[in-house]
Structures are given as C-alpha cells and as structure tokens.
Amino acid sequence: MTAGEVWGSRRQLDGKRAETAARPLGNGLLLAPALFLLSIYFAAQLLFLYQSLLHAVPGGTTVVGPPGLGNYRRFFMDSGYVNVLIDTLWISAELTAVVLCLSYPLAYLIARTSSRALRSFILFAIVVTFLSGGVTRAYAWLILLGNRGLLNSLMQALGLTDEPLRLVYNRFGVFLSLVHFLLPFMVLTLVGPLRNVPRVLELAARDLGANGWRTFCAVTFPLSLPGVINAVALTYVVALSSFLFPLLLGGGRVRFMANLIYDQIFTAYDLPFAAAIAVIFLAVSLFAIIALGWLSRRVSHGVHVQ
Amino acid sequence: MRAKQERRDAHESTVVRFLGIAIASFLLLPVVFIVFYSFQSGIYFTLLPSGLSIKWFSSFFASATFRRALWTSLSIAGLVTPLCCLVAVPTALALVRGNLPGREVINAFLLSPIIVPGVVTGIAFLSLFSRTDSGSSFVRLIIAMTCFALPFAVRSVVANLHGLPTVIEEAARDLGASSRQLFFHVILPQLRPGLLAGAIFVFVEAIDNFSIAAFLTDTRTTTLPVEAYSYIRDFDDPTVAAMATLLIALSTGLLFLAERVIGLEGFLRLN
Hints:
Number of strands of chain A: 2
Distance between the termini of chain A: 30 Å
Strand content of chain B: under 5%
Oligomer: heterodimer
Radius of gyration of chain B: 23 Å
CATH architecture of chain B: Orthogonal Bundle
C-alpha cells in the first residue's frame, strides 16, 4: 500500500495536468480539511522527532532536556540494538524474495488465465485473506502451528513424528506467517504491470519458435521488471514495519525494529529512546523507498528504450 | 505446428495453474482453519472434533470486555469511515480537477502516512496527546485513525475521478448546470465505486489496526485487536477464534457487497 502507489498516483496526476488546466471546479479551499488532518499528523511526528533529542528521567514518566544526540549515540554504540536493525533489514529481504516467487504465478494467472473460475478463485482467496485482517491471521497461524495445531496433529497422525515439532515462537513461525501476510500486497501490485506487457510480443516470440519458458524469460519477465521492482519496494517496506506477527508468533525471540520500539515504551518506559529508534527506523525505511524508486525508474527507462 | 504449440501452451499452463491453486489454497488455509476451530466444542484443536458447538461465540459475547471492545471498534470504524469519505471527495476534486500549483507534492504528502510504520505513528500520537493532554482515549483513537486511514480513501477516490471522462461534466456545464448541480448530479454519482472501495479499505483498517491502537487505548477503552492480544496472552481457548470468525464473516460480507456493486476487479482497481 505504499511507495509504489505514491509514485503511481503521481504519474496519474502528471498525465492529466494539461487537460485539466481549465477546470474551474477544483479550488484550493477544498483541500483545507485534508490539510488540517495532515497538519495534526505532522505535528505529532515533529514533536516526536524533538522528543528523541531529550532523555527520560529514570523511574518516572517525565522527559527532560537539554536536547542532544545521546539517544542516537546509545543506539549505535550498542551492538544488540544495531543487530535488531540489521536483522530486520535482512529478514525483510528474505521475505520479499520468497513472496515474489509465490506472487508471480498468482499475478500471472490473474492477468493471463483463460479460466474465469480460476481467476475468481484466486481473487477471492486474496481478498478474503486481505480483508480478514492481521490479528485474525496472526492468531490463526499461532493455533495452526502450535503443539496441538493442524500441522503437528497431521504429522503425528501420519506417524511422521512422535514429539510435536516446535513451529511457533521461533523464526520459522514468524517467517511463514509473514509470507502469508505479505502475499496479497505483492500479488495485487504485480497484476497491473503484468497486464501491461503487450500480448502481441509474447505471441511473436512464440511464432518465432520460442517455447513458453523462453518466452517468459526473454519477453514477459523483462517487460514486467519495472512493475516487479515497484512491488518489491512496496512489499519490502511493509515487511520492514512488521510488528504484530513477531509480537504474537516470535515469543520474544524474534524481534523486528517495531518490536524493539514497543519494548522501549512498555517495558523500559523510555519514550525519548523509543523515539530515537523510531526516527532511525523511519530514515532507513525512507532510504529503502527512495533507493528502490530510483532503481524502478532506471529500469523502466531501459525498458522503454528497448 | 500451431496445434502442437497450443498443446504445449496448455501443458505448461497446467503446471502454473496447479501452482496457482496451491498458493491460493495456502492463502485460504488459516481463514478456513480458524472458522473450523471456532465451531469445535473442545478447548484444543483436534483433527476429528468431539462435537460442534457455538459455545465460544457465547463465551465471546458473555465477556463484558469483549462486548465493550467490539462496540468501541465498531464505533471507531463507523465514525472514521464517513469522516474519511467526506474529506476525500473535496480533496480528490482539488487534486484531479483543480489547477493548483504543486499538486503532485500535495498528493505525495497526503499519501505519506501510509508509508510510515504503524508503530511510529502510534508513538507519535501518544506523545502528542500526552503533551497536549487532550481528549478521552476514544477521541484520540478517532483522530489518529482518521489521519492514518485518510490516504486509503483519497487514493481510491482520486483513481476513480481520474477515470471519469471530462466530457460529461462539460456537457452538463454547457446545458447550464450550476457548480452545485454539477457536483451532486453529475460527479458524485459517478464516484460511487471509488467511495465504496475506499470506504471498505478504511473500515477494515480502522477495525483491524493494532499497531497504532496499542498505544492509544487505556483500561476503559480498548479495541477488539488490542483486547484479543491481551486475551491470547492470558488464555488458551477458542474465544478469539470466534471473534476471528465474526470478523471474517464481516469482511466476506463486504467482499460480496463490493463484488455486486463494482466487481472484484474494480474493487482492487485491476482494470
């Protein structure tokens, strides 16, 4: 729901600019309510940024000055904190790679399949999953993967294992449930770019003797690449901000940056330090968005030139 | 030659189709599982349930905390959804039909809350509200959720307005429609699909949000996800599965509404 769409809409606006120059209906005042809400939002973010420069009085809830970079220094001096950051960046990259491999066939089928029933089934699965919410799904995975859950019951019934396998409260459980959580986001952003790959080019490749796999590797995939990078950017950013799934399924052992921030508030009661971690986290996320956006524009430029 | 190629096509797409069905089933697995679990009579999951019952639904509704949380969540979503739609329509008009300088920048700004991680937004609002000492927990949740969910509504309405041919509006103008008539009789009816899609997204986000709400709830005012989380930590029975089933039923209902009015593809803006 993020970076890709922000750019997408910007591009939409660009396209219509010339046409709408003479429309009298839109008026700056119409933006007032949205800008008012946005100003509350940014006031909160700015105050938060300022608080990251202060420090908490131990044992209390008060926050005192003078402003300084102490909290930031504390984060980067402690390898434990830095490791959570590196871990978050790395797991999110792994997640994005796995989710891409699973999403591409689904998006391809939605865009290309001749079977209406199959397309409806896939769309239905995606929308039901998407709308049923994070808490529902995190809880479902918690039970499904638990000692008495579906997987362990099945494996014990089939005699594959005597002892229940430990599938939750570790990296595996968090990873699997996050793959499931991220899949719909990625599929939905991939469908558009795949539909935009001109069918005639694929047919031409086939007529020239390429088989299905070759056509895919030489035509379909390269032409969808800008869209793929957009979808990767979106999924990566959503993965980075994972919070609920590691909280419920990680059992305190698997922590993302968001969980670290949460712990600073609810366990250490250190709002300024939590704020500093959040600012660092936000900076890293924004950097990832900008870098992937730049890459996407480079690649789409290359595709157009061809 | 052609026929051979088509046969090969068909063969290859069988593999892809099989993959697609497998992955889509993986998507549906937790949803189907949790619905099944919520109707089991036993406290723990068993492959062959000893019986079916609705006792976990009774247990959900018997809990005063859950009832209050359900009411709070529904009220928040019920207030935030129309609020976001009311703000999104004029915003989209200004962005798409207006000729303001810097519209791209304003649009990017308006959508920016989506890319900020929920936890960051949650603490930011927590520190704003604790500084200004304003409002009850409920009011705080409404303000935070409206700011957070607005981009979803704006995005849908902007996309919808973009797809509308301007000739219809020009024709209405030429036939003497006032700005008011133009808006209420020409533009607004055409914005129904975008408003519905946006409203569904906002509604679901507002009900489901955990990462922001976790920071703004207090002992008297909690939302369903926050309450579910604390219940899961303390108890191990299918009461939360019953809650999950209710939420899944709600979202399936919304899905069929979207399907009937705008079609699934239109809802997801795939075409």
